[in-house]
């Protein structure tokens, strides 16, 4: 991108990173009115920490390009593109910090020398990184424009096959990977102000892309595929540790709500990702489960006036949603495409309006109308009251932490159901229906019955999550279950979580749901523009990564050129070769 000798470019990137890192140990502003107290010399805080981490990683990856022993494992794939991405991330984070300080405090005059030093160092590192050669050469007939050169400079080759390691070493690498992921996720949730969260998003996005281009994620994926049971256990253990890393109950509550959102998204993934049925009213099944659990919760405002134990309430919510799924799906699943989407959208709105009208005036008094069912009591399971803090191994587990662990158990159950279903004969039939229903029917697959099964299974999984959501939020109201709104979960956000994460995968909807819930929860000041930004993000995703953040092999082959011909070339047989003879010849 910038004509520099490779050696000089690498040295410039290392020097710039060192300068940016040194600047974080100096004050960035003179007043503590800016969040994070960036006035202290010798002790980085807030946005300074993000710049420090990004600069250190940039220098480390740049030094790996020298072939230093002990650093070669960092770049099994691309060598220079990770440096470019990390340098851009440091420049973006530091530039954002400088801009935020100037905007909130009233001008550049409020910046101290540390901010200027880090900003200059980040700029020098970026110039050096852009001067590094591309990791892949151009084709002979390729003459790209500026945008093509930028994209090419950020691409990297696939990592080679890793050498064999002892099983215990591979398991330790998997544990370290999940531990790092837990730390990053916990840090993102525990950011206490929006400026720090935006900086975290910038450096995390560039850092994740850099690690991917370096080939580290591919190597970790190969290990997790080899040790699948260990991977699931490590993921579960890391998730269990999350509430013990939080000192603020609000952050544990965000984690619990993320799991509720993610579990419902996984249920929708059965319908959309596996069976290919576009359901725009899916949030109604979550509402059915929540209302069923609220009615049997023993709440003083419940019109039924009964109190079921938790296991019975879960079965009631899941069964009610399953029945509604069958009742709605039976007459509508003979439709396809847009027609099915319109019908399911209508069902979602009918559910919300019906819950509003069952108020004793417009209809029977069942749901208290727009007032909903408040004062839902906390759950008590085997004498363990989830509404009361408990001391576990010297750490206080709050109410939100209790519900987080309960929801984590539900998520594990849903993941197991999804995984078993996807790998079964029924799951393969769903995929066949998704790809081409006419061809699947011609091969003897009963399309209607299997689509109804997917609809019922997805509905029951949403009802399972709804039973827990009712107790977490203390109340259920009709307005919680809309097609689109500023607060998830709603049908639009659930569908976006599946598409953003990657249809038909397990980890995709979990990641998509976490992002779509966490970002609005942290950026409250952007609530008015949330749907606008949401639409822009989806358009960018469809343009640059239509298969989603986590895509299966089928989607990658579908959306990206592989250089493989759809029909083999018609080449003549080599001299002396024998072709296929005609029958009877």
TrEMBL record:
GO terms for molecular function: branched-chain amino acid transmembrane transporter activity. It is a multi-pass membrane protein. The chain crosses the membrane at residues 7-30, 50-71, 83-103, 115-134, 171-190, 196-217, 229-245, 251-273, 280-298, 310-330, 337-355, 401-418, 452-472, 492-519. It comes from the Bacteria. The lineage of its organism: Bacteria, Bacillati, Actinomycetota, Actinomycetes, Kitasatosporales. CDD domains: TM_PBP1_LivM_like. Keywords: Cell membrane, Membrane, Transmembrane, Transmembrane helix. It is found in: Cell membrane. Residues 561-573 have a biased composition (Basic and acidic residues). InterPro entries: ABC_transp_permease (IPR001851), LivM-like (IPR043428). PANTHER family: HIGH-AFFINITY BRANCHED-CHAIN AMINO ACID TRANSPORT PROTEIN BRAE, HIGH-AFFINITY BRANCHED-CHAIN AMINO ACID TRANSPORT SYSTEM PERMEASE. The keyword Cytoplasm does not apply. Residues 561-585 are annotated as: Disordered. It holds the Pfam family BPD_transp_2. GO terms for cellular component: plasma membrane. This is Branched-chain amino acid ABC transporter permease. The keyword Transmembrane helix applies. Its main location: membrane.
């Amino acid at each position: 991108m910038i004509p520099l000798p490779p050696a000089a470019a690498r040295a410039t990137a290392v020097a710039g990173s060192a300068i940016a890192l040194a600047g974080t140990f100096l004050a960035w502003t003179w007043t503590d009115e800016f969040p994070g107290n960036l006035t202290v010399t010798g002790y980085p805080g807030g946005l300074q920490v993000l710049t420090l981490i990004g600069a250190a990683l940039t220098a480390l990856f740049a030094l790996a390009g020298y072939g230093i022993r002990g650093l070669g494992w960092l770049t099994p794939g691309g060598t220079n593109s990770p440096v470019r991405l990390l340098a851009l991330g440091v420049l973006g984070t530091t530039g954002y910090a400088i801009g935020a300080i100037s905007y909130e405090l009233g001008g550049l005059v409020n910046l101290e020398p540390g901010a200027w030093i880090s900003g200059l160092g980040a700029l020098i590192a970026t110039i050096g990184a852009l001067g590094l050669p591309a990791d892949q050469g151009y084709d002979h007939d390729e003459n790209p424009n500026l945008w093509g050169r930028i994209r090419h400079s950020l691409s990297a080759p696939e990592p080679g096959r890793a050498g064999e390691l002892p099983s215990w070493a591979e398991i330790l690498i998997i544990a370290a990977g999940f531990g790092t992921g837990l730390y990053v996720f916990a840090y993102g949730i525990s950011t206490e102000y929006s400026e720090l969260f935006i900086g975290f998003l910038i450096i995390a996005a560039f850092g994740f892309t850099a690690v991917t281009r370096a080939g580290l994620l591919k190597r970790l994926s190969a290990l997790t595929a080899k040790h699948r049971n260990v991977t699931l256990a490590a993921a579960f253990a890391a998730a269990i540790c999350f509430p013990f890393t939080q000192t603020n109950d609000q952050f544990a509550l965000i984690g619990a709500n993320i799991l509720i959102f993610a579990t419902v998204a996984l249920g929708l993934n059965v319908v959309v990702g596996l069976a290919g049925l576009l359901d725009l009213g899916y949030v109604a099944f979550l509402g059915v489960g929540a209302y069923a659990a609220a009615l049997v919760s023993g709440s003083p405002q419940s019109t039924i006036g009964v109190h079921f134990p938790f296991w019975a309430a879960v079965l009631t919510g899941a069964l009610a949603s399953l029945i509604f799924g069958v009742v709605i799906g039976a007459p509508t699943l003979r439709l396809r495409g847009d027609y099915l989407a319109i019908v399911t959208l209508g069902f979602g709105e009918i559910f919300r309006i019906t819950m509003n009208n069952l108020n004793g005036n417009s209809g029977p008094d069942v749901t208290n109308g727009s007032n909903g069912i408040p004062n839902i009591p906390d759950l008590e399971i085997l004498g363990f009251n989830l509404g009361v803090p408990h001391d576990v191994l010297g750490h206080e587990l709050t109410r939100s932490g209790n519900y987080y662990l309960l929801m984590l158990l539900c998520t594990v159950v849903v993941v197991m159901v999804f995984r078993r279903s996807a790998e079964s004969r029924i799951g393969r039939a769903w995929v066949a229906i998704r790809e081409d229903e006419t061809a699947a029917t011609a091969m003897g697959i009963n399309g209607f019955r299997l689509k109804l099964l997917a609809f019922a299974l997805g509905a029951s999984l949403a009802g399972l999550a709804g039973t827990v959501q009712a107790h977490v939020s203390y109340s259920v109201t009709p307005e919680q279950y809309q097609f689109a709104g500023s607060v998830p979960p709603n049908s639009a956000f659930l569908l976006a979580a599946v598409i953003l994460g990657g249809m038909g995968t397990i980890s995709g909807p979990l990641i998509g749901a976490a992002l779509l819930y966490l970002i609005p929860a942290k950026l409250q000041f952007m609530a008015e523009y949330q749907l606008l930004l949401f639409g822009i993000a989806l358009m960018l995703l469809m343009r640059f990564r239509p298969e989603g953040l986590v895509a299966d092999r089928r989607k990658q082959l579908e959306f990206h050129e592989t250089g493989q011909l759809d029909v083999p070339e018609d080449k003549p047989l080599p001299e002396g070769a024998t072709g296929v003879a005609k029958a009877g010849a």
